[in-house]
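Blinded run. Sample ID left blank on purpose so nobody reads anything into the name before looking at the predicted structure. Input follows.
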Amino acid sequence: MSAAADQSSLAQPQKAQQLWFTKPFAVEVREHLLPLPAAGELLVKTLCSAISAGTEMLVYRGQIPGAMTLDASLDSLQGAATYPLQYGYASVGVVEQIGEGVDPQLMGKRVFSFQPHASHFLAPPASVIVLPDDIEPEAAVFLANMETAVNLVQDGAPAIGERVAVLGQGVVGLLLTSLLSRFPLADLTAVEGVAARRDQALRVGARQAVAPDSAVESLARSLPRESSSFTGADLIYEVSGVPEALNLAVSLSGYSSRIVIGSWYGNKSTVVPLGGEAHRNRLHISTSQVSTIAPLLSGRWDKARRFELAWEMIRQTQPQQLITHRAPLHDAAALYKLLHEAPGDVLQAIFRF
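Blinded prediction complete.
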């Protein structure tokens, strides 16, 4: 008898507690009986999962475009963006059961998976990533956002001596600022409306952290004295999640500046003034999305290599320091309400199971 068959003979179907978004501004926890793992499947008991506030609040507020899938690149999020739905993509757990044909060495392994918030889930082995031995679960839940930060750095391609600005210091913005601080830049400015997040940006390596209404003046003051006029940042990242921030990104730019948009706005939009100086300055505006590798890198980079780099950046930056709220799944309604009403009070929230 195989190891999978042996353990399955003792296993029982598992009751899973799942988080469901039922309508705008409403979530509930539902119990669902999971079957035993089928051939080529494994069952994971979740230890913790991270709320990705930017995208999850779009789901919570009903701001997801209904004509698209939740995430075409993730098997767990292939469903349409219609209620009721499950969401989330940063779960860490332990493999508790395996089906026929699954490597028995996976039993008991700690794994990361792009799964919605739930106490247990079934998945194929290819959809889980085994945690390195030296990385704890509360650090590992940052893998998805760290991969996003790595991708942003690669897409922006900062160069030695450049002036870089990062608009938005939520979790992705702080991770991005932390990675950029490792480059020999002339200046690294974090732009954020929440004072506590500005303080955190300085702790992770920003040269200066300023409020949006003083960003242009602050960046101008940071230029060398011989600069006769404001010439803008060389590279601007927009990761605030606020479409209006694109206007500030344009204001911070100079001739041939690069603006990299890492935010996903859902169905939100704004008017961006691309006439006048923005047009004359020959701006380079691009979007960055982590589900793919930039074409210029895809000949040498793949997802596996980028994940290895993301793990190393997690080792170096210790992102678990950004966790401000830990809650059981049954407190989800209160936690999402807090994220909606007082987003500045929460940096990283996680569910613990």
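Unblinding after everyone has recorded impressions. The mean pLDDT is 92.
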